[in-house]
Amino acid sequence: MSSARLANIGLPTFEMPDVRPELPPELHAERIEQLRERMAARHLDIAIVWADREHSAGMSFLSGFDPRFEEAILLIGPDGEPAILVGNECFGMAGAAPLPMRRHLLQDLSLPSQPRDRSRPLAEILLEEGVRPGARVGVVGWKTYADRGILEAPSFLVDALRTLVGPSGVVENAADLLIDPADGLRVINDADQLALFEWAATQTSGGIRRLLDGLRPGMTEREAVRLLDWNGTPLSCHLMLSAGPRARLGLLSPGDRPIERGDPFTVAFGIWGALNCRAGFVVEDAAELPEPIRDYVPRLVGPYFEAVAEWYRTIRVGVTGGRLHGVIARRLGDPFFGIFLNAGHQIHLDEWVNSPIWADSPIVLRSGMAFQVDIIPATGSPWFTTNIEDGIALADEELRATIASRYPGMWRRIEARRAFMAETLGIDLHPDVLPFSNLPAYLPPFLLRPDRAMTLRL
């Protein structure tokens, strides 16, 4: 592979979708039936899906409903309509969900000091819905553990479940039914779900592009974050933007500090289904950096770009997660780069669903998986970091044909991004790989010159 270099490239203007795609109304009922098949295979009598504001992706995936202000509990038995337990403020909203559900008012889910005089006890509702002595109950939260007896749902729910099923029953973690990195229901996506993710990626990558084009020394971090032009789509994580000393902490929200020339800078913008991140220095070229780190591009950014380019060239349907890990370990394994998290992960409505990528992972990547190219150096040094985080999906020939037929605008954008990556950046993708970002692998290390980016083309 050619060595990376910094060149005057400029980013083409990729098409933006006109409207946000809508999931077919019947899709949620189909997902419930798919979950029931997995419940039966696990010998579970009922699944209990817990959701709060931050961890609502599982419930939203299944029902189209996500709680606001409150928490919610979804109960799925072997047949019939699922039941939803909601508090005062979400009761009406749950009734408008695309999935028909029987609603129970559980006011203990409401905010503190709100009325609690109209709902029955939780145990009474659970018993009515099939949580009886000897029942096998799977609790779906948002994490899995080696021991299925470990649950992250709140104790008031777990205690009630364990009391009701008694010593002859089982209450176990069943989050893997949705998020197992090999075949979870939320890691194998259909064309309609991927179309939503691609739409989301155009929004977040468009925001990052506006920020790169408009960033100027002297504006405050809060002024800079307005360039993202968030359109109100639910966030998958808090907006991250920081410059100067705070930027080295990575995850912080914007403040009132003016951005100074020479600052390290990082930004991440994520909504349901997508996230984009870029990082670098607020300068025009290396001459503005302190003398010891003027080799920022050859020391850090170049090797990083080459590693990510090989990752892109390697990923496809049928590759193991271990092989992808090996690419990054071989190229960025020096402690200087500080790579310690997974070299990429699956994405859905939540920013991090799971990851099949770790040392010697035997998990085979499948068509329908959506990924974040999330490979972040944490040097802990004056060289700071660099980042080229974008979203992609894997699609075999059949899924690609479905997308092209059902979503022709999406397919045109994907083909244009693939062509740019190959012809301008020197990153040739396997046909399985669908780039969703309108900043496809575009990495300008010096943020006051967003027209100059890394490439492998001579």
What are the salient characteristics of this protein?
six-stranded mixed sheet; 2 domains; 458 residues; Creatine Amidinohydrolase; 29% helix; 16% strand; single chain; Creatine Amidinohydrolase, Chain A, domain 1
Task: Describe what is shown at a glance.
With 458 residues, the chain is of the alpha+beta class.
Describe what this molecule looks like in 3D.
The protein is an alpha+beta fold. It has 2 domains: 131 residues, Creatinase/prolidase N-terminal domain (Creatine Amidinohydrolase, Chain A, domain 1, 3-Layer(aba) Sandwich); 271 residues, Creatinase/methionine aminopeptidase superfamily (Creatine Amidinohydrolase, Alpha-Beta Complex), CATH 3.90.230. Helix content is 29%, strand content 16%. It is built from 12 helices and 16 strands. A 6-stranded mixed β-sheet has the order 5-4-3-2-6-7, sandwiched between helices. Helix 4 packs across helix 5, helix 9 runs antiparallel to helix 10 and helix 11 crosses helix 12. 50% of the residues are buried. The model has no long low-confidence stretch (mean pLDDT 97).
